[in-house]
Amino acid sequence: MAQSSRGIEESLTEAALARLANDTDARFRQIIGALIRHVHAFVREVELTEEEWFEGIKFLTATGQKCDERRQEFILLSDVLGVSMLVDAINHRRQTGATENTVLGPFFVHGAKEIANGDDMAAGWPGEPTHVSGQVVDTAGKPIAGAHLEIWQSDDDGHYDVQLPTFAERQLRAKLRTDGEGRFAFRTIKPSSYPVPVDGPVGLILDRMGRHPMRPAHIHFIVSAPGYETCVTHLFVKGDDYLGSDAVFGVKESLIVDFVRNESEAEAKKLGVKAPFYTASYDFVLQPADAGKQQAVRAASDAVKA
Ligand code: BEZ
Ligand code: FE
User: Fold this and answer.
1) Distance CA 203, CA 184 (A)
2) How many A from CA of 195 to the centre of ligand 2?
């Protein structure tokens, strides 16, 4: 029997849930069921107008249209709404003293060059010379030889190579392996704070929320080794103005590192940098892998592949 619009308003959620087939995948049922309940509750709570509903449709359409192999506006949207960090927190509850995860972000790409320990990842890129070093160890402090580090950062203007016309050259990114004692070292430039891309729908929504788009200066790392949980993280520069208001909620106290200024010509020579330079040191701690729960690391390009 046909229902009045008042009746539909009250019963539609149950009706939509009741249409879910019983033999569909249980986890999918749980996710889509919760999505229906929460979206309906949201529409009821704000009494969404038709104009607002269509604004939402236009916003999501524009977000999709902004995506390609090098730009992932949906990941950016998830990041600025705090959804990415919530997913990360739920999936990486590290209670073992292991290095904390943080957001992967949209600028990881496959195909970085392999460099040797001590090499320069910036290869002549302008900026303040910086030497980063440390060790990869397990939760008992045992060094992990041959651990794999994937490293990327923005340039001194706050752009990642994927945002530049010269992208094919893969700049300011590298792959590195720890030596027999679990040690790693590389040269680069000191990262600076930068805005997340604001020339798309996410920029508009940040503006409407009255929020700045800045991320505190950081270097990205993915640290992995067989038998250990992959750690996707950043090292943040201590003292940065935006540590307390990161646009994507990614800062964790344990990931803030002192980048120490050094003016010694002799020490610069030893490290193969020009004075004045900065040094940063950090030990990554990996915990044993939870079987079957390894994090897949995906680039923007992976989202547009069939
Ligand atoms: C990044 O750090 O590369 C990043 C993370 C989230 C959104 C935008 C950029
Ligand atoms: Fe970044």
Assistant:
1) 37
2) 9
Specify the residue with its C-alpha closest to ligand 1, atom 5. 105
- Residue 103 CA to ligand 2 center (angstroms) comes to 9
The residue whose CA has the least distance to atom 1 of ligand 1 is 105
Per-residue pLDDT of the chain in tens (306 residues, 90 and over written 9)? 667 777 888 899 999 999 999 899 999 999 999 999 999 999 999 999 999 999 999 999 999 999 988 889 999 999 999 999 999 999 998 878 999 999 998 889 888 999 999 999 998 789 999 999 999 999 999 999 999 999 999 988 888 988 887 766 778 999 999 999 999 999 999 999 999 999 999 999 999 999 999 999 999 999 999 999 999 999 999 999 999 999 999 999 999 999 999 999 999 999 999 999 999 999 999 999 875 566 778 787 787 775
Q: Whose CA is nearest to atom 6 of ligand 1?
A: 105
Give the atom of ligand 1 at the shortest distance from the alpha carbon of 152.
3
pTM of the model: 0.92
